[in-house]
Amino acid sequence: MSAKIPVTVLTGYLGAGKTTLLNRILTEDHGKKFAVIVNEFGEAGIDGDLVVGADEEVFEMNNGCICCTVRGDLIRILDGLMKRKGKFDAIIVETTGLADPAPVAQTFFVDQDVGDATKLDAVITVTDAKWLKDRLKDAPEAKNQIAFADVIVLNKVDLVTAEELASVEAAIRAI
Predict the structure, then answer these.
(1) Residue 109 included in any domain
(2) Has residue 155 been placed in a domain?
(3) Is residue 135 included in any domain, yes or no?
(4) I want to staple 99 with a disulfide (CB 3.0 to 4.6 A). Which of 24, 95, 141, 169 is the partner?
(5) pLDDT tens digit string along 79-107?
(6) Domain CATH code at residue 122
Protein backbone atom coordinates (compact mmCIF):
# COMPACT_ATOMS: atom_id res chain seq x y z
CA MET A 1 0.00 0.00 0.00
CA SER A 2 1.37 3.42 -0.91
CA ALA A 3 1.85 6.22 1.59
CA LYS A 4 -1.17 8.24 2.54
CA ILE A 5 -1.38 11.77 1.17
CA PRO A 6 -1.25 14.42 3.91
CA VAL A 7 -4.19 16.83 4.02
CA THR A 8 -4.16 20.19 5.77
CA VAL A 9 -7.42 21.99 6.51
CA LEU A 10 -6.91 25.76 6.48
CA THR A 11 -9.67 27.63 8.27
CA GLY A 12 -10.41 31.02 9.80
CA TYR A 13 -13.04 33.70 9.55
CA LEU A 14 -13.40 36.08 6.61
CA GLY A 15 -10.52 38.53 6.36
CA ALA A 16 -8.25 36.73 8.82
CA GLY A 17 -5.66 35.97 6.14
CA LYS A 18 -6.33 32.38 5.01
CA THR A 19 -5.88 33.06 1.32
CA THR A 20 -2.79 35.19 1.92
CA LEU A 21 -1.23 32.32 3.87
CA LEU A 22 -2.28 29.84 1.18
CA ASN A 23 -0.74 32.00 -1.54
CA ARG A 24 2.46 32.23 0.51
CA ILE A 25 2.61 28.45 0.86
CA LEU A 26 2.02 27.97 -2.87
CA THR A 27 4.66 30.48 -3.95
CA GLU A 28 7.48 29.47 -1.58
CA ASP A 29 10.45 27.63 -3.08
CA HIS A 30 10.06 24.37 -1.15
CA GLY A 31 9.80 21.94 -4.06
CA LYS A 32 6.37 20.63 -3.02
CA LYS A 33 3.29 20.42 -5.23
CA PHE A 34 -0.15 20.88 -3.71
CA ALA A 35 -3.65 20.05 -4.83
CA VAL A 36 -5.83 22.83 -3.42
CA ILE A 37 -9.53 22.62 -2.69
CA VAL A 38 -11.02 26.06 -2.12
CA ASN A 39 -14.51 26.50 -0.74
CA GLU A 40 -16.14 29.87 -1.26
CA PHE A 41 -19.69 30.36 -0.05
CA GLY A 42 -21.87 31.92 -2.72
CA GLU A 43 -21.75 32.48 -6.44
CA ALA A 44 -18.55 34.50 -6.87
CA GLY A 45 -15.41 32.56 -6.06
CA ILE A 46 -13.36 35.51 -4.86
CA ASP A 47 -10.89 33.45 -2.84
CA GLY A 48 -10.29 31.10 -5.75
CA ASP A 49 -9.44 34.07 -7.94
CA LEU A 50 -6.76 35.11 -5.45
CA VAL A 51 -5.09 31.72 -5.27
CA VAL A 52 -1.94 31.68 -7.38
CA GLY A 53 0.56 29.04 -8.34
CA ALA A 54 1.59 27.59 -11.64
CA ASP A 55 1.94 23.95 -10.64
CA GLU A 56 -1.00 23.65 -8.29
CA GLU A 57 -4.43 22.35 -9.16
CA VAL A 58 -7.32 24.29 -7.64
CA PHE A 59 -10.75 22.78 -7.15
CA GLU A 60 -13.45 25.15 -6.04
CA MET A 61 -16.82 24.29 -4.56
CA ASN A 62 -19.30 27.13 -4.92
CA ASN A 63 -22.53 25.46 -3.88
CA GLY A 64 -22.27 25.82 -0.14
CA CYS A 65 -20.21 25.63 2.99
CA ILE A 66 -17.67 22.83 2.95
CA CYS A 67 -18.63 21.82 6.49
CA CYS A 68 -22.15 20.75 5.69
CA THR A 69 -23.86 20.81 2.30
CA VAL A 70 -20.85 19.97 0.16
CA ARG A 71 -19.33 17.06 2.09
CA GLY A 72 -20.36 14.84 -0.83
CA ASP A 73 -18.58 17.21 -3.20
CA LEU A 74 -15.49 17.13 -1.00
CA ILE A 75 -15.46 13.33 -1.04
CA ARG A 76 -15.95 13.27 -4.83
CA ILE A 77 -13.12 15.77 -5.34
CA LEU A 78 -10.82 13.82 -3.03
CA ASP A 79 -11.69 10.59 -4.84
CA GLY A 80 -10.88 12.32 -8.14
CA LEU A 81 -7.57 13.52 -6.78
CA MET A 82 -6.64 9.99 -5.74
CA LYS A 83 -6.79 9.02 -9.42
CA ARG A 84 -4.00 11.57 -9.97
CA LYS A 85 -1.91 10.53 -7.01
CA GLY A 86 1.74 11.23 -7.71
CA LYS A 87 1.10 14.58 -9.37
CA PHE A 88 1.10 16.35 -5.99
CA ASP A 89 2.67 15.88 -2.58
CA ALA A 90 -0.16 17.06 -0.35
CA ILE A 91 -3.67 18.49 -0.33
CA ILE A 92 -4.75 21.78 1.22
CA VAL A 93 -8.45 22.40 1.88
CA GLU A 94 -9.26 26.08 2.43
CA THR A 95 -12.66 26.44 4.07
CA THR A 96 -15.02 29.38 3.97
CA GLY A 97 -14.94 31.74 6.94
CA LEU A 98 -18.26 30.31 8.12
CA ALA A 99 -17.01 26.74 8.39
CA ASP A 100 -16.83 24.68 11.54
CA PRO A 101 -13.72 22.57 10.87
CA ALA A 102 -14.94 19.53 12.83
CA PRO A 103 -17.26 18.11 10.12
CA VAL A 104 -14.60 18.81 7.48
CA ALA A 105 -12.04 16.86 9.50
CA GLN A 106 -14.54 14.05 10.09
CA THR A 107 -14.71 13.51 6.34
CA PHE A 108 -11.25 11.95 6.50
CA PHE A 109 -12.42 9.39 9.05
CA VAL A 110 -15.99 8.54 7.98
CA ASP A 111 -15.35 7.78 4.31
CA GLN A 112 -13.39 4.52 3.96
CA ASP A 113 -11.80 5.31 0.58
CA VAL A 114 -10.76 8.81 1.64
CA GLY A 115 -9.42 7.49 4.94
CA ASP A 116 -7.43 4.78 3.20
CA ALA A 117 -5.78 7.22 0.77
CA THR A 118 -5.27 10.33 2.92
CA LYS A 119 -4.29 11.35 6.42
CA LEU A 120 -5.47 14.51 8.12
CA ASP A 121 -2.16 16.18 8.83
CA ALA A 122 -3.35 19.35 10.59
CA VAL A 123 -6.15 21.84 11.04
CA ILE A 124 -4.63 25.32 10.83
CA THR A 125 -6.73 28.27 11.97
CA VAL A 126 -5.75 31.76 10.86
CA THR A 127 -7.05 34.48 13.12
CA ASP A 128 -6.70 38.25 13.14
CA ALA A 129 -5.28 39.88 16.29
CA LYS A 130 -7.16 43.12 15.63
CA TRP A 131 -10.64 41.62 15.21
CA LEU A 132 -10.56 38.30 17.06
CA LYS A 133 -12.34 39.49 20.19
CA ASP A 134 -15.18 40.94 18.09
CA ARG A 135 -15.45 37.70 16.08
CA LEU A 136 -15.62 35.66 19.27
CA LYS A 137 -18.64 37.74 20.31
CA ASP A 138 -20.55 37.67 17.02
CA ALA A 139 -19.45 34.47 15.26
CA PRO A 140 -19.58 31.14 17.11
CA GLU A 141 -17.63 29.59 14.24
CA ALA A 142 -14.57 31.63 15.24
CA LYS A 143 -14.47 29.92 18.63
CA ASN A 144 -14.96 26.49 17.05
CA GLN A 145 -12.18 27.16 14.55
CA ILE A 146 -9.75 28.00 17.36
CA ALA A 147 -10.87 25.15 19.61
CA PHE A 148 -10.41 22.58 16.85
CA ALA A 149 -7.05 23.85 15.58
CA ASP A 150 -3.80 21.95 15.75
CA VAL A 151 -2.01 25.18 14.82
CA ILE A 152 -3.20 28.76 15.32
CA VAL A 153 -1.68 31.50 13.16
CA LEU A 154 -2.21 34.83 14.88
CA ASN A 155 -2.09 37.30 12.02
CA LYS A 156 -1.94 41.11 11.91
CA VAL A 157 -0.20 41.43 15.28
CA ASP A 158 1.42 44.62 14.00
CA LEU A 159 -2.00 46.32 14.14
CA VAL A 160 -2.44 45.99 17.91
CA THR A 161 -0.60 47.21 21.00
CA ALA A 162 1.40 44.86 23.21
CA GLU A 163 -1.42 44.97 25.77
CA GLU A 164 -4.06 44.14 23.16
CA LEU A 165 -1.91 41.29 21.87
CA ALA A 166 -1.55 39.86 25.38
CA SER A 167 -5.33 40.07 25.80
CA VAL A 168 -5.95 38.31 22.47
CA GLU A 169 -3.45 35.57 23.32
CA ALA A 170 -5.18 35.09 26.69
CA ALA A 171 -8.56 34.82 24.93
CA ILE A 172 -7.15 32.13 22.63
CA ARG A 173 -5.66 30.19 25.54
CA ALA A 174 -9.00 30.36 27.39
CA ILE A 175 -10.65 28.47 24.54
Answers:
(1) yes
(2) no
(3) no
(4) 95
(5) 888 888 888 888 899 888 878 888 888 88
(6) 3.40.50.300
